[in-house]
Amino acid sequence: MDSIRKYAAECLGTFVLVLFACGAAVLTGANVLTTAFAFGLVIVAMAYSIGNVSGCHINPAVSIAMLVTGKLSLKDFCGYVISQFLGAIAGSAVLMAIIGKDNGLGQNGLYQGDVVKSLIIEVILTFVFVLAILGVTSKEKYSKVAGLVIGLSLTLVHIFGIGLTGTSVNPARSFAPALFIGGDALKDVWVFIVAPLVGGVLAALCYKFLDKSEEK
Fold it and tell me: Going by C-beta distance under 8 Å and a sequence separation of 6 or more, which residues neighbour residue 114?
């Protein structure tokens, strides 16, 4: 039953992220600051709502980092990721039902049509975001501010990345809009699945190295 609650929380959190943050991106014409703060504020809201249930990953890149650092079992990793993708798809479906898809659903796009550049950008953005999460969730004394720090970190990477790739750093958040939009968005979505996962793994490995160095 505890696992079901965790998976339900992850599904709900990702649903809210996609509906509200991607919705804000579309409705405000992809205004950088508005969109960046929308993503960040959703994370803050969800962190203090469902964080005590599932940890509020709502992002496969975060979950894979937790798997690598030993904070999440393989079984829960699979459950989390499936739940995150289902929540994201539901969020995009509701958003499309409300506003249609003529102006997009907040899907990502390649920077200058370049796959390699886009992969590098997304790996770097995700690395920074996930590293911040691992750091602020590493000690109990940070727990009261963890949600705020994580939300502001996501805001930061969005401010930098929106003009480049639209900022993914989250495979579920990218897959769902692309699924409904189709075309180039769906054809290129693998970039926004692979790169965040690589960035998450690299952040986890880097944090494990830094954490061991601090203990010596």
Answer: none
- Cβ contact 193:174 at 8 Å: yes
Q: 109 with 165: CB under 8 angstroms?
A: yes
Distances, alpha carbon 77 to alpha carbons 33, 83, 130, 162, 215, in Å: 32, 10, 16, 28, 27
Q: Hey, what CATH topology would domain 2-215 get? A: Glycerol uptake facilitator protein (1.20.1080)
pTM over 0.85: yes
For the chain, domain boundaries: 2-215
d(CA 5, CA 159) in angstroms, rounded, equals: 33
Could you give the CA distance from residue 46 to residue 51 in angstroms, rounded to a whole number? 7
pLDDT at 137: 92
pLDDT tens-digit map of 134-172 = 999 988 888 889 999 999 999 999 999 999 999 999 999
